[in-house]
């Protein structure tokens, strides 16, 4: 169970909450399924101000930030928004808008006037997206400091790269990056006449290659089945990776593709409110779109980071229809998917897969993907996937040169 922080100093003083503190408190609600109905037929449906009100109320209640008498009064009222607590929450919502974290959009009613204010929609701003990415990155990097990502259970490995600045004796072919202090020490101790080639000491250097990354996020129905939300942690990882690249690797690019019955690119600004659905897993469609995006990039390294919990079960036919088979690995679907993997290999694109399930068919499929593209496959959980994705990305970014 997650640790609950008690903000007793805020009892009766909710207006003192900073917008950044409030955003941190409702992060899970903003990124999760609660803001939207995942089965809403309108793919453009956005959460309402009522949804935001409820999320803030729940966050405050869970953290014991509302005096019991005030909470009981609000719960017994016909309209909680008319109570003192409700008005405080409304002021917090206004502050979020004034501080640039949300943008409220009113819908027109049938008579041409403004509709019910509670029905107004809101969007997260660029400032909000950046904040959520920073918060996710800080949490995930903190996790890296507490536990080693080297303890993961993996079936496939690619050679790792250690980021060091260690000293070594010179060997033929090495770049003459001479370490003066160590080399002079050898000269003094052995004398010029007795020096050997290996007494020249060089410092190994790091080379940061530019990379183009496409993150493939599985948003098929299984990502929220069985009482576990796997999609929200996946979005948190994606936002953290976007923030890391923007702030630490400005020469890199990262794009995001959602795959389900089909696949589509989603801009980072809309990633936070992306939802689950439709049902199946069109891995081939996701890989095909990712390749198209990577072909436009002129980078040293091109890679696909695929986060999934299901085996391929759908395929886009040449006429645009979707062929689906959720029972086992359909040879037709598998064959088309592996052809896209082979195309990745021919294009020099590495595919690293982060699996949120251990279904035997999925394990077998991912093993073949890893072998074909010399990528890596990680067995992870929603709780530790971020540590592995970020560690893998940063490791692959660095090449050792002598």
TrEMBL record:
The leader peptide range reads none
Q: Which SMART domains match?
A: VWA (SM00327)
Which Gene3D superfamilies does this chain map to? von Willebrand factor, type A domain (3.40.50.410)
**The protein's name in its UniProt record:** VWA domain-containing protein
Entry's Pfam families? VWA_2 (PF13519)
State the coiled-coil residue ranges: none
InterPro entries assigned: VWF_A (IPR002035), vWFA_dom_sf (IPR036465)
The VWFA domain extends over: 210-390
């Amino acid at each position: 169970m997650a640790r609950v922080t008690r903000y007793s100093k805020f009892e009766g003083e909710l207006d003192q909450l900073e917008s950044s503190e409030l955003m941190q408190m409702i992060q899970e609600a903003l990124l999760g399924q609660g803001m939207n109905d995942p089965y809403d037929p309108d793919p453009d449906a956005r959460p309402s101000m009522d949804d935001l009100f409820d999320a803030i109320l729940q966050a405050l209640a869970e953290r014991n930030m509302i005096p019991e008498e005030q909470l009981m009064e609000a719960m017994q009222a016909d309209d909680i928004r008319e109570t003192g607590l409700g008005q405080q929450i409304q002021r917090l919502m206004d502050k979020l808008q004034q501080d640039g974290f949300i943008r409220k959009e009113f819908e027109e009613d049938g008579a041409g006037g403004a509709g019910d204010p509670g029905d107004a929609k809101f969007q997260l701003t660029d400032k909000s997206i950046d904040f959520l990415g920073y918060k996710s990155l800080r949490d995930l990097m903190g996790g890296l400091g507490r536990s080693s990502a080297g303890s993961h259970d993996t079936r496939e490995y690619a050679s790792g790269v250690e980021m060091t600045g260690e000293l070594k004796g010179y060997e033929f072919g090495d770049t003459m990056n001479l370490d003066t202090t160590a080399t002079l020490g050898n000269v003094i101790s052995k004398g010029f006449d007795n020096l050997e080639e290996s007494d020249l000491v060089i410092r190994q250097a790091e080379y940061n290659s530019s990379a183009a990354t496409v993150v493939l996020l599985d948003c098929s129905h299984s990502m929220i089945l069985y009482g576990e939300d796997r999609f929200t942690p996946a979005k948190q990882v994606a936002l953290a990776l976007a923030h890391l690249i923007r702030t630490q690797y400005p020469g890199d690019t990262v794009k995001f593709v959602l795959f389900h019955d089909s696949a589509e690119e989603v801009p980072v600004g809309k990633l936070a409110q992306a939802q689950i659905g439709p049902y199946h897993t069109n891995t081939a469609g996701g890989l095909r779109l990712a390749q198209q995006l990577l072909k436009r990039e002129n980078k040293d390294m091109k890679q696909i980071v695929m986060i999934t919990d299901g085996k391929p079960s759908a395929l886009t036919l040449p006429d645009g229809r979707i062929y689906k088979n959720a029972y086992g690995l359909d040879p037709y679907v598998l064959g088309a998917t592996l052809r896209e993997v082979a195309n990745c290999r021919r294009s020099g694109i590495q595919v690293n897969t982060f699996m949120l399930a251990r279904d035997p068919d999925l394990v077998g499929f991912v093993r073949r993907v890893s072998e074909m593209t010399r990528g890596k496959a990680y067995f992870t959980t929603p709780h530790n996937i971020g540590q592995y994705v970020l560690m893998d990305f940063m490791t692959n970014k660095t090449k050792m040169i002598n």
